[in-house]
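Board notes (copied after class):
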Amino acid sequence: MSIVSARAPRLTAVLRQEERVKPLELFFDLVFVLALTQCTALMAENPTWEGLAQGMLVLGVLWWAWVGYAWLTSVVDPEEGVVRLVIFAAMAALLVAALCVPEAFDDAALLFACSYGVVRFAQIALFTVASQDDPQMRRSVGGLAASTAIGVGLLVAASFADGIPQGALWALALLLDAGGPFLFGSDGWKLAPGHFAERHALIFIIALGESIVAIGVGAEIGVGAGVVVTAVLGMAVAAALWWLYFDVVALVAERRLSGAAVGREQNEIARDSYSYLHLPMVAGIVLVALGLKKTLGAVDEPLKLVAAVALLGGTTLYLLGHVAFRLRNVRTLSRQRLVCAILLLALVPVAVELPALATLGALAGVLTALVAYEALRFAEARDRIRH
């Protein structure tokens, strides 16, 4: 028996039900940190509507690559034998793709598409081996391979285009690739609910860390009174975003996922609540990081429209993601978060007239008020859920 076959990944979803995230998975996520930072850098270098759209497209594509590995490590042990080596190779390819992000629509477009393709097809290869004894899963992997091939092919084609056609090819690639699991069904996948939820919780912390990094990068201009106040308010915003997810929402979502019937119901909740609906929340955090970076650049001057949309609109996107997340999981509407989302979006025209520091203060105030309201209004339910 060859070393490869002896070390081939096996379907171990049942064995991984109680396992937590392994060190190699965290190591993999560290490369994704750079990818998030590069998305912010891409938009910061080109603070226009075009730059914003490009940053969100790149983020969407990279997110879908990360999502694939979150599903993969529910059914294979990432630290076993050849799996470890393949994941190392995928990490190297993801690192190259992340380095290409600032030029992903320009000179590095083809290199980005090819390195991204390596990341995706490494995942497909491991899924293929893992599904060798499961015909239903093998069919699902075949559908995923087809949508992945189409998505990567469209990104390669986009590298030879420019302007609107290039952006359209990127959008189509993301739509068809991410839509594959929805179109081909969810019956064949295996899932370790606790592990899967924890992977997403940890990547959420990584995304929040990007807002802290943005403050650090912006503070390179020098640490004056304005920078100190901005840093404190930025930390308040990041803390509120953390609270809104981890205080109750993450706990309820994980229990909902774990309590769902194994198979289609559980897989569809995981796909919708985590793979799909976490993207707008992560995208919102990345946009907030961009807004913080621009705020630090000129604390006494009004934000430009794109930067104001990034700061306030990004938070709106984050809150709307939460509203949809709750609707999908417990079928109820979070009216207070919806109202705050609408309020922040309505503040955008005001933000372009106020000093950037005042806008950031207003954002921190709204989020702090939302956290306080929920903690008091739902104190009994919160205590029951947490304890």
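Comment from the instructor: The chain has two domains: 21-190, 193-387. The chain has 17 helices and no strands.
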